[in-house]
Amino acid sequence: MEFGPRPEEHGLLVRPGAREEYPPEVRARLDADADVVVARYPNSRSALLPLLHLVQAEDGCITPAGIEFCAGRLGLTGAEVAAVATFYSMYRRDPTGDYYVGVCTNTLCAIMGGDAILAALEEHLDLPHGGTSADGKVTLEHIECNAACDYAPVVMVNWEFFDNQTPESARSLVDSLRSGERVSPSRGATLCTFRETARILAGFPDERPGALAEGGTAGDATLAGLRVAHERGMAAPDPAETSLILEPPSRDTEPVAEESAKDQPSPAPSATVPPDRSTSETDPAATDPGRKGD
User: Fold this and answer.
1) Beta strand 131-132 with 138-143: parallel, antiparallel or unpaired?
2) Would you say 136 and 88 are in contact if contact means Cβ atoms under 8 Å apart?
3) 216-245: buried (b, 16+ CB within 10 Å) or exposed (e) per residue?
4) Inter-residue long-range contacts of 35-43, CB under 8 Å, 24+ positions, other chains counted
5) According to the UniProt entry, where is the signal peptide (predicted)?
6) The model's pTM
7) What is the β-pairing status of strands 99-104 and 138-143?
8) Which domains, from first to last, does the chain contain?
9) Which residues is 143 bridged to in the sheet?
10) How far apart are CA 259 and CA 266, in angstroms?
11) Three-class DSSP category at 201
């Protein structure tokens, strides 16, 4: 009997074609970038998450070469790095296209049409179980909630939001991505590739025009609850009138009664066995010894 994932199963770190080591020139470039990242942290181990994004920017997913690079730079074992890389869904274990398209299928998005959007894209891209399109442009998967429920159903591309989607708008979106058009999300700057996104997440500058623009406002759906609160005259309690710190009891108050069993030994095992309730309720002899043997 064989245990564990099958060799052909998706999501394996060690698989045919996965890079196992970096050429000297790539290693030198990654070392220089890693120096910048690690220097930000008093404890080098804290740099693991951004370093995983760095090697993902290099390979398009997490590879054995990336695992060993991070382990060597931070004084960790490969197993420790792999445990982190396989825990977080933001680290991909399969080769990823230029645009990682995730369709939320959690409760609210599903109710609002997320399942229909995912099915439409699977058919449109000929990816019945998700995966990457033949041209390598788009990787499609369902994703967990990304905290944009007020704009459900939501599609994310390289972690950027596309709100209030329909099967028709989602198909048009992936067609634009595959044709090389510049596409902007509902919020944020124009999309960059998955590898470029990973480098930004590693902590390097986001140089997209408008990426650091200030003055953005929340949308109407996000502010709906606040608007209703204003209309009904609702407000949060005044912090000055609310104590969030429990004051210690005064010496003048009566002492709290101690538990009756405190500092007492546990009772010894009983010499008698209590009656079986399931039997006593149906068998009169179980509760009336005088009727035994009747």
Assistant:
1) antiparallel
2) no
3) eeeeeeeeeeeeeeeeeeeeeeeeeeeeee
4) 36/203, 36/204, 37/202, 37/203, 38/73, 38/74, 40/203
5) none
6) 0.73
7) parallel
8) 24-85 (1.10.10), 99-201 (3.40.30.10)
9) 104
10) 14
11) helix
CA distance 117 to 190: 22
Cβ atoms of 117 and 106 within 8 Å: the answer is no
What does the pLDDT read at residue 162? 96
Beta strands 138-143 and 160-162 are: unpaired
Other CB atoms within 10 Å distance of the CB of residue 122: 17
Burial class (CB in 10 A: 0-12, 13-18, 19+), 247: exposed
How many H helices and E strands in the chain?
A: 11, 5
Give the Cα separation of 291 and 11 in Å (integer): 69
- Please provide the distance, in angstroms rounded to a whole number, between the alpha carbons at the two ends of the chain: 58
Strand, coil or helix: 40: coil
Cα distances (Å, whole numbers) of residue 168 to 41, 100, 113, 134, 281: 46, 18, 12, 21, 64
Cβ–Cβ < 8 Å for 84, 121: no
Phi, psi of 161 (to 5 degrees): -85, 135
Read off the DSSP letter of residue 164.
Answer: S
What CA–CA distance (Å, rounded) separates 95 from 60? 6
pLDDT by 10s per residue, the chain, length 294: 666 656 555 667 877 888 999 999 999 999 999 999 999 999 999 999 999 999 999 999 999 999 999 999 999 999 999 999 999 989 999 999 999 999 999 999 999 999 999 999 999 999 998 999 999 999 999 998 988 999 999 999 999 999 999 999 999 999 999 999 999 999 889 999 999 999 999 999 998 887 876 655 677 888 888 899 999 999 888 888 776 555 555 666 555 545 555 566 666 666 666 565 555 455 555 555 555 444
